[in-house]
């Protein structure tokens, strides 16, 4: 099973471990953290380190669209 997070049609992150991409997706949508911790994660980890931008991201599993969300502009 291959999980991917895409933005603007490009794969930003992918893995076949079944754990890391679902966890990162939940971090990006704010399930695992809130408030200042969430804003700091988006700004410093997601945008600076991983290369995400504010806007829509999509989660794919085995090349099939699974779900999407929007990363807010922080």
Helix content: 25-40%
Shape: globular
**Helix and strand run:** EEHHEE
The tally of domains stands at: 1
How many distinct beta strands?
Answer: 4
Largest sheet features: 4 strands, antiparallel
Q: Give the neighbour order of strands across the main sheet.
A: 2-1-3-4
End-to-end CA span = 32 Å
Main structural class: alpha+beta
| Individual helix count | 2
Summarize model confidence as the mean pLDDT.
Answer: 96
* Rg calculated over all Cα atoms: 12 Å
Low-confidence stretches: none
Strand content: 35-45%
General description of the model:
The protein has 74 residues and is of the alpha+beta class. The protein has one domain (3-71). Helices cover 34% and strands 35% of the residues. The protein contains two helices and four strands; from the N terminus they run ββααββ. A four-stranded antiparallel beta sheet has the order 2-1-3-4, with helices on one face.
Main attributes of the structure:
four-stranded antiparallel beta sheet, 2 helices, alpha+beta, 34% helix, 74 residues
How would you briefly describe this protein structure?
This protein has 74 residues and is an alpha+beta fold.
Chain-wise SSE layout:
Blueprint: E1 3-7, E2 10-15, H1 20-29, H2 35-49, E3 55-61, E4 64-71
Antiparallel strand pairs: 1-2, 1-3, 3-4
């Amino acid at each position: 099973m291959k999980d991917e997070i895409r933005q603007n049609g490009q794969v930003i992150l992918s893995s076949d471990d079944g754990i890391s991409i679902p966890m990162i997706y939940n971090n990006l949508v704010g399930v695992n953290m809130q408030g200042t911790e969430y804003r700091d994660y988006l700004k410093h980890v997601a945008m600076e380190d991983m290369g995400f931008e504010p806007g829509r991201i999509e989660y794919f599993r085995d090349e099939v669209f699974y779900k999407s969300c929007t990363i807010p502009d922080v």
